[in-house]
Structure formats: structure tokens, C-alpha cells
Amino acid sequence: MTTPFRMHTVVAALSLAGTMLLSTAHAQNIKIAMVIPTTGALTQYGDMVKEGATTAVELANAAGGINGKKIELVAVDDACEPKQGPVAANRVINAKIGYVVGPVCSGAAIAAAPIYNNEGVVVVTPSATSPGLTEGKNYHFIFRTIGRDDQQGPAAAKFIAEKVKPAKVAVLHDKQSYGQGIAASVRDDLKKAGINVALFEGINAGDSDYSAVITKLKSAGIDFVYYGGYHPEMGLLLRQSAEQGLKTRFMGPEGVGNPEVNAIAGPAVEGMLLTLPADFAANPKNAAIVKAFKDNKRDPSGAFQLSSYAAAQALIESIKAVGDNPAKVADHLHKSNIDTAIGNIGWDKKGDLKSFDFQVFQWHKNGSKSIAAK
């Protein structure tokens, strides 16, 4: 994120080997881990989650905490890397923390979920959208405060088919759990709608030159591109396509919705389409929450700030209701509806939200976004 993050006393923490912040508060405090990328290419998404969870905890502590106990946030870095997901999970468990906001990225979340579930740690991810996190897993301790890609993909495909109406589409992805999953969902729904998906292909995340795939897009006469993945690659695809004279519109999932994409793509970012959670910051019911964000120079309107706020809210309200007992908190979440910043939410037996609203936005070169009309 471009806005600075202020550490308040609610996040009493020290750095450990650059990867984990350990608490210095008293043992009687109730700890919630934030499993986020604080290193690597996707730290901006960690900042979004940190802003949301921190704001929720600050307001809760100001109102008396949980049954008189203060809530303490502990940040644990997984770099959004699948290999680091289990490492971060073990750090949480070794620190005897029973609750997690995160992990942020689907690949890391999928890799870590069996550990959290087996150890009875309640996880509420505000941003991991891959169906593979929960589908067919029979987890009891894993939840989300965001929709799944098989909800997001159809929203994107419907917009493309009904509003854009392209003649020939390319669907690209980054070969990773999140990117490939959402791309496949969009491809399948486009085909059902009778749209010609002429190309479905993976690119290598982290590469600096996508001229080969751009040449292929030009040769195939592609007039619309959907990319499943994150903002660094989307930014390069946009910039290099403009440089090579490929005049086509691009669309991506919420993972491309980051102001850093502007720095990479430059003016070519103008008009990029993307699916995002509804703009919960615009809901008048959230006026006090939005004020708390802005008072601390935080952005309430990013992709994951309010879903992260809601994740912390769900944990806090459940602990208030049933006590500091992760097993009871998981039971409570499964059977309850909770009023949060993203609405009154409830979960199915898999830990997925019963409903979630993804909307289509267009991104602008000044870093703002607006509802897309076509």
C-alpha cells in the first residue's frame, strides 16, 4: 500500500529473524496472529490485511477488549509462498496462539491449512479465494471472510460476455493455485456463454519479459485478455503490450487490485478491469469504522482492508460469546451469523461464506477505481 502503517501499542511486537513479530504484552492478553507477507513481492497485500485487523483490534480494545482482556496482534511472515505456509503455521502453534487472521494468499493458505486444522487453530482468511482451500477437505477450523474464485470467476465471465462482448479472448494465468484456478473458472464460464476462448496459457510469475506471449496474442487476433494472478505480472503485461502495439483490454481478479500496479504499468493501466469485493467503505453503516481508518492514515477502500477487519471482528465476537477456547470458537462460527463490516455473515459447513458479492471495477492511472459500466 502507498499509505504508511502506524504500529500502535495494541501491536506490541519485536522482530525475530525478520520473519516473526513476537508479543511483549502480558500473558493474560488474548493473542491473534496475522499471517501475512511482510517480505517478498506481495507485501502490499499484507499491509492491507494488517491495516484492517489492527483497526478492528484497536477499536475493540478501546471498548474494553474481550471480557476485560486486551487483544494483542502478532505478525507472522509467510511471504505468500506455499513453502513458507507450513513454516509460518508452526511458528503460530509454537507461540501457543489459537487464532489467525490470514493467510493472505491461496497457495500459502492451502499448504498451511492441514496444520492449523489438526492443531485446532481457528483461521479466518480475508483474501484467499481458491476453492481448493476448503473444497472436499472437511476442515472444522478454516473460514473465510471473502468469496471463492468459483463465485468471482462467474462474475467476471458474465461481465465479459454481456458487456464487453469480445470476438476472441485469451485467458492467461501464473501457473499457481490462485491464478490458474480463477483463470480456469473464467475460461469455463466464457465457453458456456458461447465466447471464443482462443488461448489458455500460463506465464511464469517473476519473469521480466512477456514479449513472447504478447506476440502470440497479436498473431491470434485477440481482442480481450483475462489474466489470473497478481499485480506484478499484470503490470508488466499491460506495459509491454502497450509498448508492442497490442491494443486490447485486460481484466484480472482482486489480486491485481493494488496501487503498485500503476508504478509497473504506467499509463497503460488506465481502464484495466477487475473483480473486487463490493465497496464496503461506501456503506453508511461503516462510517465510524471508515473514520477510524482515516484517522490513522489507513485506506479503508482497498481490496482486503474491510474483509480483514471483518475477520478480526468475527474472531473477537466469537471469543466474547464462548470464551478463549479455539474449539468452541470454531463451533460458534459454524452455527452463527455475525454482524461485521462486510455485512451480516454466516458460514457453511466448509467454512465458506454462504454468500458474497463480487463487483466489476475499472482501474485508473491515478490509482483510483470506479464501477465498470462496460
Task: Write the SSE topology.
Blueprint: E1 13-16, E2 20-23, E3 30-36, H1 43-62, E4 71-77, H2 85-94, E5 99-101, H3 106-119, E6 122-125, E7 142-144, H4 149-164, E8 169-173, H5 177-192, E9 197-202, H6 211-219, E10 224-228, H7 231-243, E11 249-252, H8 260-265, E12 273-277, H9 287-295, H10 305-322, H11 326-335, E13 337-340, E14 343-346, E15 358-363, E16 369-371
Parallel strand pairs: 3-4, 3-5, 5-6, 6-7, 8-9, 8-10, 10-11, 11-12
Antiparallel strand pairs: 1-2, 12-15, 13-14, 15-16
Can you describe this structure?
The structure is a single chain. This protein starts with 12 loop residues before the first strand and ends with a strand. The chain is 38% helix and 20% strand. It has helices at 43-62, 85-94, 106-119, 149-164, 177-192, 211-219, 231-243, 260-265, 287-295, 305-322, 326-335; strands spanning 13-16, 20-23, 30-36, 71-77, 99-101, 122-125, 142-144, 169-173, 197-202, 224-228, 249-252, 273-277, 337-340, 343-346, 358-363, 369-371. It is α/β, with parallel strands linked by helices and 374 residues long.
Task: Give a brief description.
By secondary structure, this protein is α/β, with parallel strands linked by helices. The protein is built from 11 helices and 16 strands. Keywords: Amino-acid transport, Signal, Transport.
